[in-house]
From TrEMBL:
This is Transcriptional regulator, TetR family. Residues 31-50 bind DNA. InterPro entries: Homeodomain-like_sf (IPR009057), HTH-type_TetR-like_transc_reg (IPR050109), HTH_TetR (IPR001647). It comes from the Bacteria. It comes from Goodfellowiella coeruleoviolacea.
Amino acid sequence: MPTGVHLRDVREQLFGAAERVLLRDGPSGLTSRAVTTEAGCAKGVLHRHFTDFDGFLAEFVLDRVDRMDPQAAALREAAGTGTVVGNLTDALVAVFSSVAVAIVPLVTFRDELRARLRQAWPAGVPVLTEACVMVAGYLTAERDLGRIAADAEVDTLAATLIGTGHLLHADRTGTAPERAALHRVVTTVLAGVLRGERPGRPRVD
């Protein structure tokens, strides 16, 4: 029986391999054989540690969602500093530069994976839902500080920002949009609720 430490090592090895395959080959290329080949281990290793491949994928997706927690904490701590538009632009760049964009089509591609995820994630698409919660939490903090309007609908604003950001990044084979494009989205969406802030020109890095 493997120890807990060994199990964590195997999980991280397989999850890392799954992420690389997903980013390189897309959802259709993400098979159990592709994952174990990428990880450099026998196919049976995956099935010794997970009930089946969809069970493995469900844990992989939830692990990547959990990895958004530090980003969410950093965004909350940024409330009251810098500019609202700048902080949110940085957050969207980070979300959509990660494996998040590739996970969305994976979830929609596999019916059984969605069924497994429903056991732990009853509504919405993991990653996008978590990103909306992250942005809404930040906007709530800024609303409490008076940097956005007191009547701002933070949940609607968050969903609009994440949905638009996802549309800009939806083609994984295309060129990723520049930061300036996300800056314009944030500026436009928040135009009616910002208080005492001039968005200014976006950074080009």
